[in-house]
Amino acid sequence: PLRELLVARGYRVHVVPLGAFNRSGGAAYCLTLKLNNIYQGRMGACERSDGPSRASSAPSGGSAVREATSVGANQPQRWPKAA
Questions:
Q1: How far is it, in rounded angstroms, from Cα 45 to Cα 51?
Q2: Would the pTM count as exceeding 0.70?
């Protein structure tokens, strides 16, 4: 049922053996695509509220704790203040 539902929505389903991945301490969750995220578009530099545009999306200082939504997370994750 899930495979047919995904194919009907235009996704290509790939079956992947997980044995070696699980033995190395991995989890299948990180191999999945989260389908309930709604893409809001890419924010331009003028739309950002946390300062000037940067090349990296990783936290790099600043005076306030910023919130960013992590792919695979159900709730916004709070980035710790950089040291």
A1: 8
A2: no
